[in-house]
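Checked the freezer inventory, then went back to the computational side. Two predictions to log before the end of the day. The first one is the construct we discussed on Monday; recording sequence and tokens without edits.
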Amino acid sequence: MPTMAKAFGPALAFIAPAALLACMLMVWVPSAFALNPSLEVSQYAHTSWKIRDGFFKGQITSIAQTSDGYLWLGTEFGLVRFDGVRTIAWEPPPGQQLPSSLVSRLRVSRDGTLWIGTSKGLASWKDGKLTRYAEVGGGYVFPILEDHEGVLWVGIGGVSTGRLCAIRNGSVQCYDGKLGGTVLGLYEDSKGNLWAGVKDGLWRWKPDPPNFYPLPGEIDGIQGFAETDDGALLIGTQLGLRRFVNGKFESYPLPDTVLPFKGRRLLRDRDGGLWIGTSERGLVHVHQGRTDVFGPSEGLSGEAVYALFEDREGNIWVATVNGLDRFRDYAAATINVNQSLSSARVSSVLAAQDGSVWLSTRAGLERWNNSEVTTYTGGIEKKTKGNGPVPSSLFQDHSGRIWVSTLQGFGYFENGRFVSIKGLPGGNQPSIVEDTAESLWIANEHVGLFHLIRGTEIQQTPWSGLGHKDHASALAADPLQGGLWLGFHLGGVAYSFDGQIRATYTTADGLGQGRVNHLRLDQEGALWAATDGGLSRLKNGQVATLATNNGLPCDTVHWSIEDDAKSIWLYTACGLVRIARPELEAWVARPTLTIQVSVFDSSDGVRSLAIGGHFSPQVAKTSDGKLWFLPWDGVSVVDPRHLPFNRLPPPVHIEQIIADRKIYNPTSDSGGQLRLPPLSRDLEINYTALSLVAPEKILFRYKLEGYDRDWQAAGNRREAFYTNLRPGNYTFRVIACNNDGVWNETGAALSFYIKPAFYQTYWFLLLCLLTVAGLIWLLYVARVRQVAAIYRGRMEERIGERERIARDLHDTFLQSVQGLILKFDAAAKQIPPEQPARQSMENALDRADEVMAEGRERVRNLRDNISLSDLPGAFAQVADEISNDQITFKTVVEGRTRTLNPLVIEETYAIGREAILNAFAHSGGNQLEVEITYDRQQFRVRIRDDGRGIDPQILKQGGRTDHFGLQGMRERASRINAQLNLWSGAERGTEVELLVPAKTAYQVTTSKP
């Protein structure tokens, strides 16, 4: 962007520098603007919605606001509800309707009732109930008013004499023909008087008796009422604004600049401002002796005003013939040509010591002081008469002189006279400062750095002499240590002392990158550099930069300034930023910290600039604490002590749910929650918050309990979307904050229930589970049978194999051995008895008989077929075969006898037999007991005696080294997944316990299905 001086230079190049330096004529032009809480209408934030833009249908006749925050608009096509963003046409309950679709008047009474006047009668709406009032009649409803006693007064037209009706506690009383015509306006003043405006005059209806005051020449009727500060009654007439005092009508004086108008509506706002809605000139605004007009040429939607309304947040709403307008306060008010500036192109602003403000504009130098503007221009004859040079940078020195830089020269104002400085060239001079020696430093973009010593001696240093190819864009004199700080156009900061650069800081040291736009030294001696890469702080050689990673909305900073509360203000490419002192100190202590800042953007009246101004100063603070800065379309002013702050948390409402493109109103049914049909796939929930100051800055958070784990940040979006929610109960909650971050933490909530389809019900799922369980059980039973059959087959094969081996041993091996014994016996008998060989042979034959006996025993064991139901008998048989009369043997059976698996009974029998044999052989006891228990959880066998016990050393070793009885018992137990326990002690006997899990021990017996 070219600088202002570059842009304006060609047009003024013909003016010689001597022209400015010789004279600059003063022409003072007073104007009546003052910066106070009540601005001109053009300085308010203005938003317009027009009928032709399709935002709503039909002309708006009346405006009201209910306690829930909604704005209601009465139109010629019905009632409309407005949340500041979208309009929704109001529909009455099924089977009911308004007397007419043309809504003429709206009024909200103190009990929250919305009274709806139409072209054919009156109705009211409260708590979802619509009530019509036949007693009022079917005429056109004009004014509706609630007095201080709670009585509702309604003016009815359409009858020859007109009608005024009063509604008290639901009872209607009408007065026909007593006012001589249609009541067009109603007003109750601060003294409790009730006034009624008719076509040709004014009635004081209350207190009794009524009194009429004619107004000759009035043909449109009195419709608008207000009061003056001293309590006089104001009325709007076809001849403008009138005062009514002591029974007489007086003209209300307005400036001659305000053209005649017909006053249709009057509104006194909460700040005392008077708003007049006219029939042909738009708005007239009167406040503290000032009057301004705002019509279609200024942006109003239409010239004819039908309604004025102030909402709960102080916004002013205006209904015109062509649309709807809203006016509200800005945080930063802008002064331009509408407020008497000669030009909106302001290049620098200076707050002088006397409280005035100096502005460099394209039309000349302007001074604001005590609500007056004086413009200084220059004129000189040179071929043709031209305007004076354009001022750029400004500075006030210690003596109060105002220094001015232009393209043509450099000088100062003193005592109303301009004094030029010879030897200082004109041109782009972005910065001027004064050092502690009361000498000036001037940065000239093309020539270099100039030092004006005591106003006479001039020293010049080219930029190359300071080690730079670019020029300094900002200067700051150091009041503590002397010297000069320079910020450069291409980046970097340098410190100069005695004409020498003593220190340089760049991005490598942590300085913000890009152009240095502004330099400022605080009271602690820290240098603040506003750069394109953030706000840098330099102190004691340490640099820290505040940027987006620390909480700024963007990096580019045009300038910084400290207000009276020690807060820091920054003008950035994203708007105006305020950093409170505690936040700033926290960042200074820890530069990596992310801080909280307040941002003022276009909705607050602050224009965003990608590139800041080229001249200085770009910001100024006046003695009243206000900050003046330049948005390129005038001068903006913000008062840090009186910032508009919206403290009202916005009411939050859930408006509707759309499930699969079908709309459901968020009203609870008899069960207490909204019930949605089965298989509701696509869900859209519409919600809103009612803050009408800046609806676009409302932020929302929502959470669907039963689905969302935490709050979802929705920004300013007013819809939530969910897909494929499971059947069940849900609660949707939404909260919101207004434009100033005040949250309504309660928000709104809506519970709803998605019905399940038949296959999503619990009974269906239970039935499915039971079916699956039944199938699994059948598969299990089939598998058990299969395994049992395989097991039995293997056992039969095993038993058959044992029997085969037994037969083979008996029929072959044993028979062969028996034959050999017989042959050896015959041979032995042939040897004489006295021969030693005979005795040897007989001994061998005795041993052979033992082998045969043992072989037969083994064959018998192989062919033993233990009964699956007579394990106790098998153990008893083992004991009988031993025939030891010293030990008493008995068996005990507990529980219902169950069929054991063949392998289990085989291994159990082998283990028990080994234990019984060991007890008979080694225990030396008197009693031996076998206990067999058939339990549901396990099968247990215990064999215990009362003998001498087993040597602890043998138990520890797991048996004798040359015997394998205990080891074999454990191996057999492991084969059937059983647990073998053994207890023994000296003179306490021995107990062997075998525990077999039931699922292993018992056979599963099931009947065929």
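The second is the one RB wanted added to the comparison set:
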Amino acid sequence: MSRVEDDDRVMKILLEALQKPPAERETYVRAACGDDDDLRREISETITWEERMGGFLRSPMVIVNDPSKTFRAGQVVAERFEILRKIGEGGMGIVYEAFDRTRHQRVALKFPKPGFQYLISPELESALKVRHPNICLVNQIHSADIDGQEVDFLAMEFVEGETLSRQLSEHGKLPQKEALEIARQLCAGIVAAHGIGIVHRDLKSGNVMLSPTTGDGLRVVIMDFGLAGVLGVDSAEGGTPAYMAPELLNGERASIASDIYALGVILYEIVTGRMPVEAEAAAPGKPNHFAAPSSLARGLDPPWDRVILSCLNASPALRPSDAREVIARLEKKPFPKAPLVMAGLLMVIALAIPQVREWLADIIWPPPSVRLAVLRVTGDTYSADKVEGIAQDVAERIRHMSSGRRTVSVIPLSEIVDKDIQTPEQARDVLHATHALQTTVKNEGDDLVAQSSVIDLATRTNLRGFSGHYSNATIGTLPTALAGSASVALRLHGSASPDALSVEATPAYDRGLYLLRKDEQSFDDAITAFEEAARLDPRSPLPPAGLVEANIMKYEQTNQERSLDEARRALRSAESLNPDSPRVRLAAGLLKETTGQYEQAVEDYRRVQELEPRNEEVFRRMAAVYDKQQMPSEAIAAYRKAIELDPGYYAGYEWLGVFYYYHGNYLQAAEQFQKAIDQAPGLYGAYTNLGAALDELGRDAEAEKALLKSLDLHPTARAFNSMGAMRAYQKRDEEAISYYTKAINLDRSEYAYLINLADSNRRLERAQEAKAKYREAMNMALAALSNNPRLGYDRGLVAYIAARLGDCPRAKDEIAQALRLSPAETKVIRSAVLTYEVCGQRDRAIELLQVAPPELLRELDRQPDMADFRRDPRFRQLVDQNPKGGK
């Protein structure tokens, strides 16, 4: 391999590693380098150096150092940029102030240092999407020749002024009026970036610039928004500790919620002049129990305390859902105190009830009224008949939607035309609009491309962007899509247009739905059916929404990344037809859930709940996300709500049973699976699940009966695997291998079957066969984690495989991550116990079992690989102390 090719490989692996949380990097590098120890050592040393020195793209451009310069003042780069001076330097790159001779303005240029030229990858293109006055603009990625090497660099807006941190250090806390204005602009920028899926990851006062404008105005600019997020910098390496949410310190990935936490720290700073101060009554080791800001700043209005402390909540789920909610709550006027003591007492009692608390909150601090201006459609020269009347149509649709207790009015189009309103700012200043829907269209061949934005005119925040391609056959759906986009942004009730499907397309669509529910292997036929339905009715969002689900099912069975790409493409198509369709929002939530975007998935599912309060499916999906977010009580409540809405439908019972199974409550799981069978006696999957739960309970005869019934109804990989597991526990590994092989032949995507097959081969002393299957399972597990690294169960299996392959350092690292991701999941604890036992750390295994459920003790007391472990007096004591433990 040539030196250039070698450098290429090193830098590509390095970049991918730096995109992962620190705890996951060693695992990734080991997998990427294979048996090349020299390559692994070189990359690991480089990562260690970078972690110590700091990341170039995360470094605020206002930090100035004086190492040797790469460019001189006056030098021209890329025949366009004249270097003026160096203004900052990080571990991997240097920032210069320059003059752009093409645009005749000053810019900031970010260059990688020699040897790090691959750091600016095409993935940074997403940073170019962030366009907002409160975010530093990244203009373009350019190339320059440096010592004969083509190097990419970033051209960015040059922002004059000082950082918020310097302002606070020199002048202390800010008056409330100034603080509110800074908060307003900060929130506006954060909402704009979060709206297109970009998280900052290192939000802090040192990354906020205060730039003077004409008069006495002030522009607040967030630096590097999009760059840290694109690089995937996470955990301690990706942020400044004082601003990091507790979950980041525990190794979880950055999210909208962690940015909201950092925003809370900044707001605390600007109203108190200090970083958050621990409350006197705070429990030891709980730094997120902070003193109210008003205790440090006399005269501070009450909303500041409520909002800031909610942002700093230790639980991501209990923080404000987005920055728009933060500023809205800060700007609410306080309610006058009730004169009567009895009224106050009744208020306290009422607030104990969540539904009453929410109702009272809307009365005491009503949401701000909305006065929406639907602006005329503008853009390229096009046929007038294609878009004439669209604005009027959209306005009428929105006018007929309900909005709960909030006042929402739509400004008549006649007023907009009469006063020649062209821009959102004119709508605000002339018509006193609070929000505007702005739409532009342009020709693209024979099609029309539409783009729209719902803009909060008080904060200049783009609440929701929308883009869609339309042909002559589908242009009629544009009003529905625009009204739906506004409905989502403004949280309106009702639909812009009920989902409809032509008579011609209905049979193909219905067949697609049947195939999706039939089993887990008919995804290709379902995709074909939905594609046919979409061809027959290109105006309906239902077929592309079905395609999203079918492609996700295909991805889950095959681990093919292109299936996720197809799902994303189908979702864009569905949203272009009606983004506020319940089926479309369900599909969007499922896609986000599949890719580990749990917080965003919850938002989509909540929207479906608003549109269809009796949709039991959305409660099941919400429950699954709550489970993945380690919120078991909320998950159980949602599952039970789904059952309550449709007690005659088997799915609610089956999903709740699966939840109990993975949490080690096998008896309750078996009860739910039996209820599912009672509702649908031909449900072979429920018999499989029932057999697995009964097997965990040691009720072999009943388990075998249920599994044989499942196989009689329909042979499936899961049923064969469960039969194999039962034979393995009976120490009949030859028979187990036969069943495992049948399972794998039916479904080669499930690596748990490969692990079981490897275990049986190992116990039969077939070392080579076992090792080959462990390695195959490892590759498949890592592929699954690459798309969603928040899967604790899968990471636990990776740890176990690594242990069986003799790589205990990696196994211990992986299992630590799995336990952080899913600390209450019994299957993860089981993997941890097995991993620690294989790696000779029995003390750790015993320690984990101190709080283990009795079902896990019972299962381990039968586990064929744990014979010596079962004889340990400490384990026997745990079993004997638990009346439900033992064989």
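For RB: The chain has a mean pLDDT of 79. The CA atoms of residues 64 and 88 lie 4 Å apart. Let me know if you want it refolded.
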